[in-house]
Amino acid sequence: MLAPIRLSLAARRAILPSPLSLLPALHVQSFSSSIFAQKEDDKSDKPQAAHFAKDKPRPVSSGKAVSDHAVEKAPPGLPEDTAAQAPPSPLPTSDLFNLRNRTIVVTGGGRGLGLTIAQTLLESGANVVCLDLLPTPSEPQWSHALQTASSSSLSLKYISLNVTDQSSVTQTFQQIFDEAPADAPVRGLFVAAGIQLMLPAVDYPVEKFRKVVDINLTGSFLCAQAFARERFARFPSAPSEGGGASIVFTASMSAHIANKGLDCVPYNASKAGVLQMAKNLAYEWGQKGVRVNTLSPGYIKTALTAALLDEKPELNDTWLQGSLLGRLSTPDEFRGPVIYLLSDASSFMTGADLLVDGGHCAT
């Protein structure tokens, strides 16, 4: 039997690798094609420690600072010189939320939330054009809005429009832009036109499904498309000209959740489509001077919801349980969020969704 061979500590160190030598060396990586260039062989006479990745290519430093490797090419479809897109000049805080010297279009502006927002825009200094399928807007809200416009020397117009009729939408927006005062160009669009038809999914007629999607999603797109087309034609150098513009789509918290107690598959699907559409339009139009965002309201106390709760009183408890504030919202509570999104206060905000639901989606 052979006696065990005992090696001195120095001998063992010469044979066994250091634990640190088993770790890969850290290098500043270059984004060039040589990122995985093979490290040159060490020609020194010193013993080489074993390395588990010795035969694998290792990154080498290019000798440049990390910032020198930043990708400078703009994404496809965007201007190459993105640095030329200078931020707007800072405004006094008192002017951040004013909408003076601009015209704003409101779809669904003949009643409900749309007409409430139209009144708010007038109070904030904007000229307003309301579009709705109704032959005439709802009273007495419309008369009150007219009084506000008159007392403030502002313009308030109403045009009956089917937002799913592309030809009519195109002609209407061309007319609006043509007739806007030179000192108050069209700079905003609030899209509130939409419908809700509740039926169990298994029984939902395809014609009604298509109608909901056509108005809520396609109609929203057609209005935004016509708005942007007119803006780009008149202000080709935007945002340096015309002050830039803002589009706000009305989405819904229903784009984020399944509503308990409500059978509304096409509505929720259409509003989810509005969210994604807004993100893509924000990408296409951001550096052309048009910001695009969405507002997602929670349950709103309106005549329509009141009628629904009369029909299904059990829904009241269900909705209140989902609200962290323990109540439903009112149309007035969306005035501030919409003014923020349409005004210069949100000048660096685009492609975003502003969720105003009383905390419903937080649980």
What does this structure look like?
By secondary structure, the chain is an alpha/beta fold. It has a domain at 96-300 and 333-357: NAD(P)-binding Rossmann-like Domain (Rossmann fold, 3-Layer(aba) Sandwich). 33% of the residues lie in helices and 11% in strands. It contains nine helices and seven strands. Strands 3-2-1-4-5-6-7 form a seven-stranded parallel β-sheet, sandwiched between helices. Helix 4 packs parallel to helix 5. It is globular. Mean pLDDT is 83; it is low at 18-47, 49-62 and 64-72. Residues 102-257 form the Ketoreductase domain. Keywords: NADP, Oxidoreductase.
Q: How does the helix and strand content classify structurally? A: alpha/beta
CATH topology of the domain at 96-300 and 333-357: Rossmann fold
Number of helices: 9
- What is the CA–CA distance across the termini? 74 Å
Rg from alpha-carbon coordinates: 30 Å
Share in β-strands: 5-15%
The major beta sheet can be summarized as: 7 strands, parallel
Shape: globular
Mean pLDDT: 83
CATH top level assignment of the domain at 96-300 and 333-357 = Alpha Beta
Q: Which residues sit in consecutive blocks of at least 5 with pLDDT less than 50?
A: 18-47, 49-62, 64-72
Helix-residue proportion: 25-40%
Biased composition (Basic and acidic residues): 38-58
Protein name: Ketoreductase domain-containing protein
Pfam family, one: adh_short_C2
GO molecular function, one term: oxidoreductase activity, acting on NAD(P)H, oxygen as acceptor
